[in-house]
Design a protein that fits this description.
Layout (H helix, E strand, L loop, with lengths): L2 E2 H10 L4 E6 L5 E5 L7 H10 L4 E3 L3 H4 L1 H11 L4 H9 L5 H11 L3 H23 L3 E2 L1
Parallel strand pairs: 1-5
Antiparallel strand pairs: 2-3, 2-4
Helix pairs in contact: 1-7, 5-6
């Protein structure tokens, strides 16, 4: 069974501190394991994942994604000039994500950012599939 690349990308987009996604190679579905405090089915899901060898693959987490690095790469790839310099300063220190969002909105390059981010997520998804030895389809 091939995993749909969009399924991995969706998991990347939904990655947060409270839930971990797993690809179920038997059903082709994404299974979510939440924090014990948030997930009523935690014990059951955890046991299924732990006792089913070679069935579940942990999908990329927010720690595998490195959103800040993607932002840095985006800014580095901008043409030299005032916008690039302004965003370079904006992404330093506390409040970097908010200043970055404000900056791309102000300069009208939001779509350019979203396209760049989507491409980065796709590369992460492809790399994850290859590392896990899973065939994928677009």
């Amino acid at each position: 069974m091939k995993i749909k690349l969009q399924q991995v990308i969706d998991a990347i987009e939904e990655a947060d501190d409270n839930w971990t996604g797993f690809y179920d190679s038997q059903t082709g579905e994404t299974v979510w394991l939440g924090d014990r405090d948030f997930d009523d089915d935690y014990e059951e899901t955890e046991e299924l994942i732990e006792t089913s060898e070679n069935r579940f693959y942990r999908l990329p987490t927010k720690y595998d994604i490195h959103e800040y690095s993607i932002i840095e790469d985006f800014v580095d790839d901008l043409p030299a000039g005032a916008i690039r310099n302004e965003l370079m300063n904006a992404i330093r220190g506390r409040g970097a994500f908010r200043r970055f969002k404000d900056g791309i909105n102000y300069h009208g390059i939001e779509q350019q950012w979203y396209d760049y981010q989507a491409d980065a997520y796709k590369r992460i998804a492809i790399r994850w599939c290859r590392e896990e030895g899973l065939e994928y389809e677009e």
